[in-house]
Target: Protein kinase domain-containing protein
Amino acid sequence: MEQSNSDIITVSTFHGYIKQKCLPTTTVDEIAKAAVKKVPIFSAKFMFGLEILESASYVEDRQFLCPNLFWSEIAGLINEQNILLSIRFYPTNFEDYVRRDRSVLFYLHDQVNRFYMSVWEDLKDSQACFEIGCLEIRLALDSDITDESLDQLEKSRGISSFFPKHVLHHQKVKYLKKDILNYAPNIYYYSKEDCMLERLNRLLILTQFDCDSYACYLGAGLGIPVRLLLGPRSQVRVNIGNAKEVRMLCYFATIKQIAFSEVSRQETRRYQIKLILSNDPDGEQPIIFTFDSKLTADTVIHTLEGYCRLSPDMRENSSINNERAPLLVNGCPFRPHMPLSSYDQIAKSSQNHSTLLRSHITLERVLGEGQFGDVYKGIYRPPEAGSSVISVAVKACKVGLGTEEKQRWLEEADLHGKLNHPHIIKLYGVCRDEPVWLVLEYAAEGELRHYLIERQGRITLSTLVTFCHQLSSSLAYLEALKIIHRDLAARNVLVANESCVKLADFGMARQLAQGEDCYVAEQGRKVPIKWMAPESLKSRIFSSASDVWMFGVCMWEILSFGLKPFHNISNAEAVAVIGRGERLPRPDICSVSHYRLMLECWMDDPLLRPTFSTLQPKLREISTEAKRLSAEATESQLHMRSPSNGRKSPTRQSPPTKDDRRVSERPANADYLTLNRPIRPSEADTPVHRATYRVVEQILTITKVSELPSIKQLLNSVKRVGEHIRTLFILIQQTVEVIDDVSLIDSAERQLTDSFHYLVEDMRKLRDFHTKVDVKDELYRRFLGQAFVVATDARTLYQSVQQCCQAHFLLNAHR
Model:
């Protein structure tokens, strides 16, 4: 009876075909192991699987039959002629395996060679392809490479068949034989095994044949289209949007459990794989991949499982603890063995924050209203504090919100409750029963943006820079914890008192798992477009680097006294402006060094932006310098008071310039005095004006060039700018010799010197990296931006000279 139910199937191999008897209950895993024996291969059976030829390309998206399926389940679904015995798992050091079993070496070589021939026309390294072809000729001849042996090979197979077309074009066919003979001494002493291993090692570098690639979506829901890369060297990585940079997500050794689920969306079904990492045991931050194909999802699950089992750490832990939890918590798409709801128990949120009783909290008044909740000023009476009370802000979730929104509030509380920093609003606890309340530290002065608008003109520059430094310290703290805020803006910063600000609103914050360096957000949720980095706008990728960009915009808001970025254009126009490489202009009171720091935060390439740990000390230096200048300005104003009538001499002012390309105009400082200028000779006739014009004209010559000029031309142009600036300084010194107070001119000269120093620094970087196409354009845009800063500072210096001369003229006129 058993005999009558059996089938004889044909399995393809890279050495030919084998026949095999199968019962209806024979599993795919059993078929593969039996085929390995017949090849024959005597070791490393774990490396093999049954690949589906009809849906596979040799390049990517290799699909394998689920090892748990019975033959009866697949017999009518696929043609047995399309089943290929293939090496599925590549060891990290395959030489150890292939040297122990030559049959594995031969099979691996044939499989990789088939893959190489399918992609060799796309490879650009002609020299590497030529050397690989010479090694194959050495294998084909099984003897030394000589004139006679090459002639025989040409007659039997053709020498050109060993090389792709671009090699033949590069080497010239008539000289190919000579080139092969010239290379032959390099492999004269190679045995057959040595040739195979050498080819494999070279092909590994050239083609990355040990890395499988699958199309999927990163994240739940619609997700972001990515290529998932799996292999012993790549581990678990993704290539987002065909970008050149491949991002590491995790190591196989850190994967604790793998869960899958089916998701229905309208009339389609999708398949999700969730990776729970060993450093995230509660499953708070799983890595989620979504697939359109059930077969692809099953292939990826078992590929992950296989590499996890091969991981040295995994094998060591398994030998120590035989009762280790199963890796696949609910089986695979074709063999589920656990209810999907069981995964919820694994991924439940932790309860690190304290739960408060609503009876201990009294709401007093509304501070603000939002789409999903309101914020109240309240009083909290801690039970252990007796009669003492604490002023708090209560963030109350609206009644009737869906489960998903409530869960977001609790996730925000869970993350916020872990934080303890002097410049981060403290979370006291949560009232978990409906409506959910988050009880937070109360900041008496409210939002920073409103605070700046109301007190414009009364807040010193040193205070504003101090605020920036305080925020950088809190963000450096978050960076160390791998937490990204994702919503940095002046509206989400609260003012505790006139000298202290605190970061708030962690509703969009995420903590990255170990090995992750970015978070890809789902579609549909509102995001702060005008504050976001280019990679966040294009691909919804958020990272510590995107937080740095947003922090740069937040600093711009602070130094612009609460003005919103790009406030007079639409979101779409702002995205286009950023895409063209344009940046927010320097605020009037912002120093060159501080604006320089903003420009670094706004680099297109996230890798070129500074980290918060490097921003913090730089802002400390800028803050110290701002305090010193503020003290000097106060002393100067006291010195300029007239003792006879108590009138103030004209207040120092940096007048606005027409060419600064401001996004918008702001009301002038009410404390600045408007001076009626006396009639003077034409400014164009003064030496200082002519020298300033030469500086600006030279910079315009640089910036008017449509394409990147040669490095030598740029160096000469920058050198001429420096010569004109030195001439300007000499003429200014001659002009202001009779003026008593030149502190405003000194400050403007220091600013111009600093900005020119940064221009020279950008020139050096452009010179050093001009051969690297991926960063050259970015560095050139940065250079041009700094050139505009130099031109602006030259004009500001000239206007400072005019202002001091005018003040001196008025002072003498009243004596």
User: Anything to note?
Assistant: The radius of gyration is 35 Å. The chain has six domains: 2-88, 97-207, 212-346, 351-442, 458-639, 642-813.
